[in-house]
Specification:
The protein is built from two helices and four strands; from the N terminus they run ααββββ. The chain is an alpha+beta fold. The protein has one domain.
Length: 126
């Protein structure tokens, strides 16, 4: 015989429903937030590839246009030309910096705001 002092142990239907609501809310948030980070990783990879393929003679306009084409191929839609800054280092190599903001509607009147910045340092990406 089981001595439980008259109390049953286990999950109730209300507890199961509560955990279900938490799981669904977490899944919905993840489905809205993960694509934002996937897009950022695409931006990082595009900046890295552009930094490695750009020579010192390329103009800032050429570098910007080539990077925008890479971003378009990677299906990045939230980075605009104004978000890209190109400077020259002491060796006349272009230093590419991309800084942009992404807002995602979560639910109701709540949104998430994400600020992303990545830059190349010569052939490296920070």
């Amino acid at each position: 015989m089981n001595a439980t002092n008259g109390r049953e142990h286990g999950t109730t239907l209300v507890g199961l429903l509560a955990w279900g609501v938490v799981l669904v809310a977490f899944t919905v948030l993840a489905a809205k937030i993960l694509p934002v980070y996937y897009e950022y990783w695409s931006v990082v990879n595009a900046v890295k590839a552009q930094a490695q393929s750009t020579d010192a003679r390329a103009s800032e306009r050429d570098v910007r246009e080539a990077l925008l084409k890479r971003l378009e191929v990677a299906d990045v839609t939230h980075v605009e030309s104004d978000d890209i800054q190109i400077e020259r280092d002491s060796g006349n190599n272009p230093r590419i910096r991309v800084a942009y903001e992404r807002r995602v509607h979560l639910f109701g009147n709540m949104s998430g705001c994400f600020d992303f910045t990545t830059q190349s340092q010569g052939m490296q990406v920070e």
